[in-house]
Write a structure and sequence with these properties.
disordered N terminus, alpha/beta, four-stranded antiparallel beta sheet
């Protein structure tokens, strides 16, 4: 699937020899990862395995200590490259991080007006387009506190989309949600995936992974232990550590 969608030339993301320490704790160990344009990558692994640290390094929310990160031809290093990469990379976190005193529409128009120079009229038109995309246009004039957790996370996704990024990063986007709200958020992410958006999703939702991923990445102790297609990953894992993780997580 990814090969058919991917454009020629430069990969969307190329990570080589990435290392990250927190004092004496080695959080990322010689990580190598390539993401093609249009590819959907799911990163999974036990708690503390480095999943969130990895994707936070991609848009420099965390600084790496050695190795290289290249995003769509821009090598990460220095303020100018950070700003260029952040302009192309959207991120959705576990927590929604919406401004509680602003309406949903105001939350969505702030970035495009300040960072992209859009007029209020154009920013509001774009915001409504993406609220339609995440299936909650009727919530535009409410404050975040009036919405459910699932609706707030969909607003957070729409807010990222309003910046019209080339790449989306999701850091356990359903982990703060009640079980009945998880499906509505995953459905929106699946819809994005099917539109050809390049994305890396850190998640324990294995049903979503089977449905939407082109490539599975399994991490443990800061290293990538195994990569493969969802079929390979679920049906014939190559390592005992991966096999044990899958058996454990599928029991729940």
């Amino acid at each position: 699937m990814a090969e058919q969608r991917a454009g020629g030339g430069v990969n969307a993301i190329q990570i080589k020899g990435l290392n990250k320490w927190y004092d004496s704790y080695h959080a990322l160990r010689d990580v190598e990862l390539t993401v093609a344009h249009g590819e959907r990558v799911v990163v999974c692994g036990p708690s503390g395995s480095g999943k969130s640290t990895l994707i936070r390094c991609v848009n420099s929310l965390e600084t790496h200590d050695s190795g290289t990160i290249n995003v769509d031809g821009t090598m990460l290093g220095g303020k100018a490259s950070i700003e260029a990469i952040r302009a192309e990379v959207g991120m959705v976190f576990q927590q929604f991080n919406l401004f509680p005193h602003l309406t949903i529409l105001q939350n969505l128009t702030l970035g495009p007006m300040k960072a992209r120079g859009l007029s209020r009229h154009n920013a509001e038109a774009r915001a409504m387009k993406y609220l339609e995309r995440v299936r909650i246009p009727e919530q535009a004039h409410k404050k975040p506190g009036a919405l459910s957790g699932g609706q707030q996370q969909r607003v957070a996704i729409a807010r990222s989309l309003c910046m019209e990024p080339k790449i989306m990063l999701f850091d356990e986007p359903t982990s703060a949600l009640d079980p009945e709200m998880i499906a509505e958020v995953l459905d929106v992410i699946v819809d994005l995936a099917e539109s050809g958006m390049t994305m890396i999703v850190v998640t324990h939702e294995m049903g979503f992974a089977r449905r939407a991923a082109d490539k599975m990445v399994f991490m443990d102790h800061g290293a990538i232990v195994e990569t493969g297609t969802p079929e390979e990953f679920f049906e014939a894992p190559k390592t005992e550590r991966c096999r044990s993780f899958i058996n454990q997580i599928l029991k729940h």
